[in-house]
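@channel sequence for tomorrow's demo:
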Amino acid sequence: VKNNLQIVSSLLSLQASRADNEYVTQVFRDSQDRLQTMSSIHESLYLNESMSELNVRDYLDQLVRDRVRISADILNTVVVDVKFPDITFNIETMLPLGLLLNELVTNSLKHAFPDNQEGKITVRLDILPDKSAVLYYSDNGVGFPIENAGDTSKSIGLILIDSFAMQLDGNMKRLDKPGTHYELKFKPI
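structure tokens (generated this afternoon):
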């Protein structure tokens, strides 16, 4: 699976290099990022003894930090604060959760901190007594523009965030606070 994802990623890279339009090039690059997230999950599974579960702290911490590090133009201006429990989730939970976090971080890096504005991304996952999980995600950036706050039809990233939350059979809500804040409650499989 990982090798096939790498081939598809390489094909997207070739297409991106041939595109004359910056928007089209960015669409290919965003798709590559999503494939890289899936590929890293499969690589982590391959290196893991169980082949069906991943350590939440190890994998998600690295995913968030790598996503910020890859965005070199704002590397020195965004602080990352992550807190994940030392537990394991199976691949049916980790794949949509990893992709969801990839989209959230990517959206923050693209939109929350214009002109190399300093900022902070905070991610926390708590396990509740009923064994459900709550993912808290926030940035202290500029937030959603008021005129677009209810309109998600134009952003593939926001559509994907909702889709990954549904795959987790979770209840996701955007909180009305300065910056961008999400809370997702779900039952890990």
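heads up for whoever presents: The helical segments are 2-18, 22-47, 56-70, 91-112, 156-167.
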